[in-house]
Amino acid sequence: MDLATLLGDLRARRPAALARAISMVENGRSGFEALLAAIHPSLGRARRIGITGPPGAGKSTLTERLATRFRADGLTVAVVAVDPTSPFTGGALLGDRIRMESLALDAGVFIRSMATRGSLGGLATATREVCDVLDAGGFDRIIIETVGVGQSELDVARSVDTTVLVLVPESGDGIQTLKSGIMEIADLFVVNKADRPGADRLRQEIEVMLGIRTGNAFRHVKAHHGGGQAGRRAGGQELVDAPSSRLPASPALPAAWKHPVLGTIASRGEGIDELAIELEAHDQWLRVSGGLEQRRKRRLAQRTREVVERAARRWIWQETDAAATIERHLDDLAQGRVSPYELGAGIVADLKKGSTA
Ligand SMILES: Nc1nc2c(ncn2[C@@H]2O[C@H](COP(=O)(O)OP(=O)(O)OP(=O)(O)O)[C@@H](O)[C@H]2O)c(=O)[nH]1
Ligand SMILES: [Mg+2]
Predict the structure, then answer these.
(1) pTM greater than 0.85 (yes/no)
(2) Among 196, 267, 272, which residue has the most ligand 1 atoms within 8 Å of its CB, making it the best to mutate?
(3) Distance from the CA of 203 to the CA of which of 34, 105, 146, 189 falls in 20 to 30 A?
């Protein structure tokens, strides 16, 4: 099938075209970059929400509830489950993790799992590209569930508009055990399994930590609008005037994002409304503060770097003699006559000169 037909079908939201485009992108099949380039101008409609946290925290349960809630609002939802720890390609384990029966038969919901990706691109890149296809495919909300709190999850988290970190009372020492990176990247904190002992304490711990970390002088400054209008609130957020502004007509500037710490019992659907409200508030804050544009620009710069790296890798290993040069020097390497560093430096020098023999 040619690209134009596939694009037309994708825009017409034909399910078969969506599946075809996704597998093309996921497997890096010929033409996938042309497809991604063609949909680029139409991206940015969907809101991308990342849900991350330790194994078993209730991310899938929460995702299912949230998706149901979005559906009730008439929105279409795509769910992408990413498991960087799984050696299976969309294998049984991941299948179990995202069964989400209540959504399976709903035509307004699309569920996809991703585990590994071939040698030429990382899982995080592939995930971002699949999300682009879903965005172009017309989904209103894309929820990306990532298992774990390590580097790969951080990479995935960096590709969404809003990151929700799900923690549970039984994660032991709680937040101390988490890499600081993931705390930094979270926009919303959810303490799930609030029916279990220790949930309140965990919430307090997170709040204390946030108080120390945020350190924003204006955080508790109340809005004082000339017209006596109360501070505008979006979710739990307040939009305050810039303190230095003397002009009463100046538009309100958003205060620093105040990270909500929510309690949920996902298995019973409790706290989901509050989560939806805070997600909406974060989206508004991103738009008003210019944060959304900033995040998206950063993401596009990052994506371009990834494209360059992927193309460079492909070129080096598939179109130059670099691999053959290594093969030719295997004995030298093994017998210590040359080190990988010297050989590698020589290959790079040759690449730079344009001679790759
Ligand atoms: N008590 C209690 N159990 C819950 C709650 N939310 C989810 N669970 C249960 O916790 C278990 C794990 O839930 P999942 O939604 O699969 O968790 P997950 O974070 O997606 O798990 P992985 O994808 O395997 O990392 C399931 O047995 C859920 O029924 C909750 O609020 N309270
Ligand atoms: Mg899960």
Answers:
(1) no
(2) 267
(3) 146
